[in-house]
Amino acid sequence: ECYVQNTAREYAKIYAAEAEPLEGFGEVPEIIPVFLVHRPANNIPYATVEEELVGEFVKYSVRDGKEVNFLRRDSEAGQKCCTFQHWVYEKTSGSLLVTDLQGVGMKLTDVGIATLAKGYKGFKGNCSISFIEQFRALHQCNKYCEMLGLKSLRTTHQKQRKATSVKSKNLPNSSTINKTVPKKAREPRDFISSEH
Fold first, then answer.
1. Which positions ≥6 away from 138 have C-beta within 8 Å?
2. Which keywords does this chain's UniProt record carry (predicted)?
């Protein structure tokens, strides 16, 4: 938990350094630090400690990307959190995504990180790779994404889908397979459907 949140915190610091100087960007989300405390005299010898956040606690993004959260989409903090996700995704070439962003105002806590199956630069997150795929498919850029010069994920995702459909059109159909399969192997179980 500490490692994930503090790793995300380091990305947030770099994001802030790039975003804050931009005219009109304003305040940037901050991921608060979490510390591991050793308590040898206690039944539970380890605990995490972090700053208390006072105010309305809001989930700006969720781990699985399925929930539509209007505070995420419509609020300044929510839009900047989405931009932060997009920024991390682009900076890591789609290999890492900070997710489950939640907190009070611009102060965030208890975040998650999704990485590709083998991790990213030796780091493995605590969320499924499917969160990266869902983010890529569902993210809608906003004015803060534009201010940072981030590339639209819609066109990247559409290009990938188009390339996949073009590849499938070039696959041989079942009549082509019939011509190239030796007579002896022509039993129903040996045929490969062109729909697969």
1. 65
2. Cell membrane, Disulfide bond, Immunoglobulin domain, Kinase, Membrane, Repeat, Serine/threonine-protein kinase, Transferase
Torsional sign, CA 125, 147, 27, 78:
negative
Which residue, among 90, 108, 114, 111, has the nearest Cα to 29 in the 3D structure?
A: 108
H or E segment and range at residue 179: helix 174-180
SS3 readout for 27-47: CCCEECCEEEEECCCCCCCEE
Measured CA to CA, the distance from residue 81 to residue 95 in angstroms comes to: 18
The pair of three-digit structure tokens given for residue 19, joined into one six-digit string: 């975003």
Read off the pLDDT of residues 23-76 as tens digits, 9 standing for 90 and up. Answer: 999 999 999 999 999 999 999 999 999 999 999 998 887 655 454 455 556 789
The question of whether 74 is a catalytic residue gets the answer: no
Alpha carbon of 40 to those of 18, 37, 43, 114: distances in Å? 42, 10, 8, 32
Active-site pick, 64, 100, 110, 190: 100
List the structure tokens of 133.
């795929």
End-to-end CA distance of the chain: 41
Question: Domains of the chain, with CATH numbers?
Answer: 1-148 (3.20.200.10)
